[in-house]
Amino acid sequence: MTNVTDSFVFLGHWPSAGSFGFNTDILATNLINLSVVIGVLIFFGKRVLSDLLDNRKERILNTIRNSEELREKAIEQLQKARARLRKVEMEADQFRVNGYSEIEREKMNLIHSTYKTLEQLENYKNETIHFEQQRAINQVRQRVFQQALQGALGTLNSCLNNELHLRTINANIGMFGAMKEITD
């Protein structure tokens, strides 16, 4: 270790300039070489390293700016999507309400229409019943009239003799003749 400290202490002391030889002290020569290389690197590499760091810094800042812009655009699109969602939900609610009211209106129309149809059927039924009653009454009248007429003819035929029968026929013919003269 004394050699290492001696080489640092005697750095300013060089052997005479006229002699050329090898320095066999490895630590002393390595430190000198390293200090020269580091000095050259610092002197010439400072600008390159600075440019590399500046470029890297600029890329990082651009990436951050782009990320911020993308984030803002994403937030804006999210807000627009939420607004559209609210609008669609309101329209869906409106359609649902309108659909329910339309269903209720159709239901009421159907009930009203069915009520009218039932009322008309009731009227037709009553008219049919009244018509059938009138027809039945007319049939009964006709039968009663026919039976009464047959009964009257039977009574007349049994009560009338030929002479009375001929006088009745002549009287009726006379009445018909008088009617004919009046109408002519």
From TrEMBL:
Alphabetical GO biological process terms: proton motive force-driven ATP synthesis
Keyword annotations for this protein, in alphabetical order, are: ATP synthesis, CF(0), Coiled coil, Hydrogen ion transport, Ion transport, Membrane, Plastid, Transmembrane, Transmembrane helix, Transport
GO terms for molecular function, please? proton transmembrane transporter activity
Q: What's its membrane topology?
A: Single-pass membrane protein
Question: Which Pfam families does the entry link to?
Answer: ATP-synt_B (PF00430)
Question: What is a single cellular component term in the Gene Ontology annotation?
Answer: proton-transporting ATP synthase complex
**Which residue ranges run through the membrane?**
26-49
Enumerate the CDD domains for this protein: ATP-synt_Fo_b
Question: Function of this protein?
Answer: F(1)F(0) ATP synthase produces ATP from ADP in the presence of a proton or sodium gradient. F-type ATPases consist of two structural domains, F(1) containing the extramembraneous catalytic core and F(0) containing the membrane proton channel, linked together by a central stalk and a peripheral stalk. During catalysis, ATP synthesis in the catalytic domain of F(1) is coupled via a rotary mechanism of the central stalk subunits to proton translocation.
Q: Member of which family?
A: Belongs to the ATPase B chain family.
Task: Provide the protein name.
Answer: ATP synthase CF0 subunit I
Which organism is this protein's natural source? Montia fontana
Lineage of the species this protein comes from: Eukaryota, Viridiplantae, Streptophyta, Embryophyta, Tracheophyta
